[in-house]
Amino acid sequence: MLNHRKLAARALLAVVFWPSLFFFWFLGPFVFFLLSTTSSEVCTRLETRAEFLAAANGTIPMLAVQNLIYAVPIVCLVLWDRLLPEPARARHIVTCIKLFAASMVVGALWEYGSSLVCDGYGQPFFSPFWQMTSYLPIVSVVLNIPLYILAFSLGRAFSTREDVAGDEASPPA
Predict the structure, then answer these.
(1) Does the keyword field hold Transmembrane (predicted)?
(2) Is the pTM value of this prediction over 0.85?
């Protein structure tokens, strides 16, 4: 009976993991990018440094929510590992968590920095460091490609039913 409960829990995690991986990690960045960028109409209204900084700081709650939503596949991997512990997979999950944390920081810096760079008047309100954040999407891609591949392979390994073949299946006659 316990084996069926673990199998059901693994199946439930698979039902959460795969859609969240697809919608949040593959389609989500495009949606959040469109929602978090400042339109040209708003940029022209920002005349003082305080207004500019307030607009950029307004993106922080969205960045926090975005990162919480993006963590759903990582949480599924951790829960899968708790149900079916295996040292090799646990090391890969730790690698996923590290890559995710680095990607989260780079993404937040990029989105916050792009909010500060947007200036309708060309006024240098902030240091050139924030203009350098325009290169962070390249770093993000370098981090996210191995993260996506590793998370996909771990999800595939966890959601397969290799335990049923050894426990319940009868040998072929």
Answers:
(1) yes
(2) no
**Looking at the predicted structure, is the pLDDT value of residue 27 above 80?**
no
pLDDT of residue 41: 47
Residue 146: pLDDT band with limits 50, 70, 90: very high
Which H, E and C letters describe the chain, residue by residue? CHHHHHHHHHHHHHHHHHHHHHHHHHHHHHHHHHHHCCCHHHHHHCCCHHHHHHHHHCCHHHHHHHHHHHCHHHHHHHHHHHHCCCHHHHHHHHHHHHHHHHHHHHHHHHHHHHHHHCCCCCCCCCCHHHHHHHHHHHHHHHHHHHHHHHHHHHHHHHHCCHHHHHHCCCCCC
| Mean pLDDT on 154-165 | 73
Query: The tokens of 130 are what?
Result: 């924030």
Q: Is the dihedral of CA 59, 74, 15, 9 positive or negative?
A: negative
Q: Which helix (H) or strand (E) holds 86?
A: none
For position 124, what pLDDT does the model report?
Answer: 55
d(Cα 54, Cα 92) in Å, to the nearest integer? Answer: 40
Torsion of CA 72, 69, 151, 13, to 10 degrees: 20
